[in-house]
């Protein structure tokens, strides 16, 4: 009998069975025609073989208003690469972590990429379509495995009432939006190869967002050169010097952070994306580097806190500082890593983590509340929570 795993997660509820032996003016994309797009149903099919020729990526979408309509929302779920040759990648990512014990976590990622483009995939796998599953447990064990697909189908909303969905055929893994506005998803797992079955339901606690916000007319999705967060038109190692990403909840706040250095960048620019919502109300969604600072924290005598980082630098955590503006102050967050869920201990690491934070009132807030007196104002009690976070470092 396979053991059951029950998690109460900040953005999800899930029940899984896992094997006990194991310790996420619009330019048309040509590939959507070559890959078999059915315009009537909004269906995209991605073949499992590496495609010949040049691939193109979508890095912007039309946004006539500052809110996203159903058609625009599906563009974000649709494939962003027109064909998967050996140099490009695109993936769909889902995760959850327990609020009561962050050592319990689950990540499911649907890949369309070769190992040449994204070097953390299995170099011996011939299919560019793979689903990876990572699960960690309170007893310290970690389950990690993958299964290849024969074809992937991503479908948009249709007249029958189906919302956005994706299926990696022959894997037993699929995902579907349960609501038209994509505020709830369900990932179904029924993998004979992995001996895993279950469902993961994700329900949004905050408003949807794009990494750099929504601009009237057209919204840019490229958050760093050649990077559209989960996709790129060139190999990962040709783009990335370092990459910090994570998200979590602390108290009433939902936060996302991304801080990135491009390889061989003469400007030495830091590319960031920041998101903060409080009690479901959006406070920040922007790519302005003055809004967010992310720095590693390491133990004395180690290189874990070095910045810019190098391969094999293993931090104990990260320090985040968000500027929420005069009306909301500054959010300071310390993230401490816990379970190592994925990675090789060198150039890639993904953890679950604990979060402790505080809000520092702005000068205008302190003046308004105290008539101009007093030092920096803070919320009465520290904010605590959990996170999933990762680090890529591609330079020695």
What would you note in describing this structure?
- The chain is mostly beta strands and 396 residues long.
- Strands 19-18-17-16-24-23-22-21-20 form a nine-stranded antiparallel beta sheet, with no helix packed on it. An eight-stranded antiparallel beta sheet has the order 1-2-13-12-11-10-9-3, with no helix packed on it.
- A hairpin with a 5-residue loop joins strand 7 and strand 8 (142-148).
- The termini are far apart.
- The protein contains three helices and 24 strands.
- It is globular, with a radius of gyration of 21 Å.
- The protein is 5% helix and 44% strand.
- The protein folds into two domains: 1-207, no CATH class; 239-396.
What's the gist of this structure?
The chain has 2 domains: 207 residues, no CATH class; 158 residues.
Ranges with pLDDT <50 over ≥5 residues? 1-40
**Radius of gyration, Cα only, in angstroms?**
21 Å
- How much beta, percentage-wise? 35-45%
Biggest sheet record? 9 strands, antiparallel
The percent range for helix content is under 10%
Counting DSSP E segments of at least 2 residues, the number of strands comes to: 24
**What structural class do helix, strand and pairing data support?**
mainly beta
Q: How many DSSP H or I helices? A: 3
Q: What is the residue-mean pLDDT, rounded to a whole number? A: 88
Gross morphology is globular
> What is the H/E string?
EEHEEHEEEEEEEEEEEEEEEEEEEHE
Overall number of domains? 2
Measure the end-to-end span: 46 Å
Order of strands in the sheet with the most strands? 19-18-17-16-24-23-22-21-20
